[in-house]
Amino acid sequence: YNHKYFVSHIIISGLDINLRKWENMPIVDLFMFLIKNINSNHHHYHLYWFPIEVKDEIIESLNEQILKRKGLSIATVGQPILHSRQADYAFPFSCIYNILSDDVFIHTWRVSAECGYFNSLLFNNIIDIEEKITDFPFLIQSLAYYGYQKGYLIFNKTDMSLAKFIPNNELQIIRHLFGIKWLNFSSLVSLLNFNPKFFYFPGKTYKKLDIKSRELNLHESPEIIMNISYDVIIPSLGRGKYLKDVLNDLSKQTILPRKVIIVEQYYSEPDHAYDFLFETVFPFKIVHKRINKMGACNARNLALQEFENEYVFFADDDIAFDTKLLEDCLDTMHTSGADVITLATTRANQDKPSPVFGICGWEGFGSGCSVVKSRFLNGVNFDERFEFGFGEDSDFGVSLRKRGAVILYSSVNSILHYKAPIGGFRFEEKKPWHYGFLRAIPSPTIILFYLKNCTVNQLKAYKVYYWLKKIVGAPFKEKLLMPFRWSKSIQYAKKLLKN
User: Fold this and answer.
1) Burial, 431: exposed, middle or buried (Cβ in 10 Å; 0-12, 13-18, 19+)?
2) How many beta carbons lie within 10 A of that of residue 476, not counting itself?
3) What radius of gyration, in Å, describes the C-alpha atoms of the chain?
4) What angle do the packed helices 456-471 and 476-498 form, to 10 degrees?
């Protein structure tokens, strides 16, 4: 295509169809034609689009990603469509743009319209689409976002040399994907940061894209699944009784772990509730470490030095699950192409999450309910600056994504989490910001996550979001103290960042 997103040349291989009439026409019209007229009853095809002056190495990198990734739906190269300050204001909880790399394809819905690849299986699963879409970046971003939500594998690799087309309808895209609420929120953040030019003015709207959830051919390779090996990592503190139940559940799995690594933390002397580990024979190897140091980050890091097999199950010491949990999870990972699966968790006396959500792309990570391909864990640790705070799970997930890992969330199979009232990682260690009249709020570790992984504008947006959430119903005194508490939290977070 040329610089105005008009088709310049069409090259067809192995597809018995004439598309020559679309040359010199808008590329968005060609895509809409393909979506509406060539469905699964006719063809399964691969579609590339790129500017006339594209470099050969960009096409090669796309091909490498296609060959590397089973089930790939979209891969793009270039500057993300939503990349501006306004987009950061609208997405304060998404750190994906800040970790986009020019070396690695990142699993994300923030894609580029400049150069890319489509697998027609995604087109074939579109149920309903707006008839009058005339903007190509809008179409690509919508397909990527809604496909990501339904578990399709969507990737982008940043290449600023292609950053020639900046969409002039970014606010319209934000409104379409996230609704008027978040658009108004981003406008408020803009105003509070003296950027009124970003204010939204009503324009044309489109109905939301409807895409089928990704269908996986589970159990298609049972012999492969049954031969997969995995280890289990469990940090524990004062929960010997609950841990014994977890090990019993692991003993009943249809695919047994090869090794279970337990890091027991104790206050002053070892807890005798863990003596059963020396007295009971389990159908897997037990590696039991006892340490006189508190903290789940440290405990998991010690355990990460011991894994040996293809997958690692990160588990808590107070969970319960059925006998096929790991088999089904590994089957889903093998079939979907995921590198990490975080499983849904339910609390006691809580309704089970509906399986209708299936699997979806996810930007988080659960350190007590996830299975990870071990090749992504070499050299990766939990950041101990988050110890006894919040955010270590998400920060660890960012580390995996920087390596190109695909993280999916699955509600098909779930884990029962007892949230036992004793032990666990919530050992009360007082931090400097816990003392004095003026406590740091929010937790400095939350601010640390933003300083490490997000943009400055996203931190500004989070500040507005946090204040709006806390100011409603707060006593007048607390409202007056909020700016000072925030400043103190920023101060301690910067100290943590330098540590």
Assistant:
1) middle
2) 7
3) 25
4) 150
The model's pLDDT over 173-182, given as tens digits with 9 standing for 90+, comes to 888 888 888 8
Contacts of 95 (CB under 8 A, 6+ apart): 363, 394, 398, 449, 453, 454, 458
Give the pLDDT of residue 159. Answer: 81
- Helical pair 392-402 and 444-453, crossing angle rounded to 10 deg: 10
Cβ atoms of 127 and 209 closer than 8 Å:
no
Handedness of CA 448, 449, 454, 458 (dihedral sign): negative
Among candidate residues 157, 140, 138, the one with its CA nearest the CA of residue 148: 140
Asked whether residue 356 carries a pLDDT value surpassing 60, the answer given is: no
Single-letter amino acid code for the residue at 473: G
CA angle (278 as vertex; 277, 281 as ends), nearest 5 = 75
Cβ atoms 394, 364 nearer than 8 A: yes
Query: What integer pLDDT is reported at residue 59 of this predicted model?
Result: 86
275-306 pLDDT, tens digit per residue, is: 899 889 999 999 999 998 889 999 999 999 99
Whether 406 shows a pLDDT value over 70: the answer reads: yes
